[in-house]
Amino acid sequence: MKFDILIKRPIFAAIAAGIVLAMSGLANAQGVKQEILDRMDGNYKTLTSLKANVKMDKTNANLGDTDSRTGSVNFLPKSKKHGMYIRLDWTTKPIESMVVIDKRYQLYRPELSQVIQGSTDSAKSSGKAGNALAFLSMSRRELMDNYDIKYVGQEDLPGGVATWHLFMTPKGKASYKSADLWVDKDGMPRQARVTEMNNDTSVILLTNIEKNPTIKADVFKLDTKGAKVVEG
Predict the structure, then answer these.
(1) Which of 132, 100, 93 lies closest to 117 in space, CA to CA?
(2) How high is the pLDDT of residue 25?
(3) Half-sphere exposure of 199 (CA within 13 A, CB side)
(4) Which of 127, 95, 125, 133 has its CA nearest to residue 111?
(5) Is residue 189 predicted with pLDDT exceeding 70?
(6) CA distance 127 to 121
(7) Predicted confidence band of residue 3 (pLDDT cuts 50, 70, 90)
(8) At residue 205, what are phi and psi to the nearest 5 degrees?
(9) Is 201 in contact with 181 (CB distance < 8 Å)?
(10) Pairing mode, if any, of strands 228-231 and 114-119?
(11) Which of 29, 80, 134, 142 could form a disulfide with 138 if both were Cys (CB 3.0 to 4.6 A apart)?
C-alpha cells in the first residue's frame, strides 16, 4: 500500500503542476489581450483620420488562387457626426477606385465606365476590403460586445513591424466566419484577415501609415459621370 502511494503522489503532483501552469498561462494570455484592447481603444479615441499604402490578398479557398493588389487608402473613422468613410484607389490592374460610407460602397471601374454599388455585407471582390478596414472604427466595447476574442501570439509583419495577433469570431449574425487582427504597440491595426463563410479570405495590410492628416471631404466623392451603374 505504501509503495502504491509513493508511486501515485508524483503523478498527482505532476498533474497539479500542469494545471497550475495552464491556469497561469491562461491568466497571462488574458492579461495580454486586455492590454492590447486597451491600446486599441486609446488609438481609436485619438484617431481622426488616416492615410496609408494598402495591399490586399484575396484567396479562393476552392482553387487555392491568390489575387494581390496594391494601392492607397484614405480613412475617416465613424463619429457622432458621421459614419465611417473609406476611399481605396487600386493602382494595379484592373484600375479601380472604391468609396465606402458607413456600410454602402461604390466601386468605379474607369476602363469599363462602370460603377458597382451596394452594401458591404453582400459585396464581392474589392468591396470586401471595407469589412477589414472597419475594425479601425471600433472601440474596445464594440469589439468585446460583438466578438469572442483570443490572443494568438506575437508576430512580425513584412517590413519587420512587431505586432500582437488576435483571432475573433462574431457573437451574432455576420457576413463572415472569423477575423484576425495584427495590432502594433500603439494599438493601431496593421493587418486584418477576414475569412468568409466559404473559407475565402481577404487580407488587408497597411504600410507607411500617416495618422490624423487633413483629408478634404471631396476625396470621398467619385467622378463617375457617364458611367453605367450596376447594383452589387
Answers:
(1) 100
(2) 46
(3) 5
(4) 95
(5) yes
(6) 9
(7) very low
(8) -115, 125
(9) no
(10) parallel
(11) 142
Domain membership flag for residue 64? yes
pLDDT of 125: 53
Domain with residue 107: its CATH number is 2.50.20.10
Summarised one tens digit per residue, pLDDT across range 146-170 is 999 999 999 999 889 999 999 999 9
Give φ, ψ of 121 to 5 degrees.
-65, -30
Residue 141 structural domain? 41-231
Residue 213, C-alpha cell as written in the block: 492628416
- Is 105 inside any structural domain? yes
Into how many domains does the chain fold? 1
Amino acid at 119: S
Can you read off the three cell numbers belonging to residue 152? Answer: 494568438
Rounded mean pLDDT of 47-62? 94
197 domain residue, yes or no? yes
pTM, full prediction: 0.80
> Alpha-carbon distance 191 to 204, whole Å?
6
Beta-sheet pairing, 201-211 with 189-196: antiparallel
* 11 occurs within a structural domain: no
| Torsion on CA atoms 164, 205, 76, 189, rounded to nearest 10 | 0
Tens of pLDDT, residue by residue over 55-78, are: 999 999 999 999 999 999 999 988
